[in-house]
């Protein structure tokens, strides 16, 4: 149990640093090109690992291939399109904070899908977390309120895509090797994105002669091999062994890590108002996650 919780924490910590790298890359490359390179390189790397270990790479069930494609569409292509696009309007720290409301949104979506009544405490905590996000927003840093709102909703669409991904991924991870699932998801995600990234491929030629070549290359390698291959693998292992609820709890640690990293790497400011906003969002998400875990345990005991 401890090792899978550690996997969840390490995975989400890598995701938190990923916000910084992606923010840097948006200054040099178009959104779709970043996503295409990220998952293409990660997919090739993961398949090379499988081949070197002489593991099978086939998926016999065609319906599972479709599930892998759909999970890649939501978890790789759509999530990272919305996420990367949002970074053009909001800070990496704010995008990370919005991600931490995933546990609350998951419950709200579950209520809609299963047509059950949403608890008042869940709605209250969701509204409270939105207020926490508002406290973190610094209009003077970001530019203007319209850009902030646009970035917020783009990131919110990304969060919805991520929730859909985790729901689809849980079934696949129960049936197949975690590395194999992630390898297919990365390749599918890259292929989907390539349709839109193709027109920007020529930009890669200009990067070679760019004075920022090392910075761009280092961040592409980080988001591909570390944030994607290693981060997703660790997080998927935790989902496979703990289910969806517990790993989502560790998503609450991301804003703290991202804010600290942003302070040192992106020269972001930290104020008492921002700290209060972070604490409100994290506490709201943690309360929801712990309550859900308690309800799951009670349901198991009653069986």
Provide keyphrases for this structure.
mainly alpha; 303 residues
Question: How would you describe the overall organization of this protein?
Answer:
The chain has one domain (2-302). The chain has helices at 2-25, 31-52, 62-86, 92-99, 102-113, 120-136, 139-142, 145-175, 178-197, 203-208, 213-242, 245-250, 254-265, 272-302. Helix 1 runs antiparallel to helix 4 and helix 4 runs antiparallel to helix 13. By secondary structure, the protein is mostly helical. The model has no long low-confidence stretch (mean pLDDT 82).
Quaternary arrangement of the chains shown?
single chain
From the N-terminal CA to the C-terminal CA, the straight-line distance is: 22 Å
Topology as H/E string?
Answer: HHHHHHHHHHHHHH
**Fraction of residues in H or I helices:** over 70%
Q: How many E-type strands? A: 0
| Uncertain ranges | none
Question: What's the tally of helices?
Answer: 14
Domains (count): 1
Rg estimate, integer Å: 19 Å
Averaged pLDDT, please?
82
Strand content: under 5%
What class do helices, strands and sheet pairing give? mainly alpha
Quick one: overall form?
globular
Main pleated sheet: none
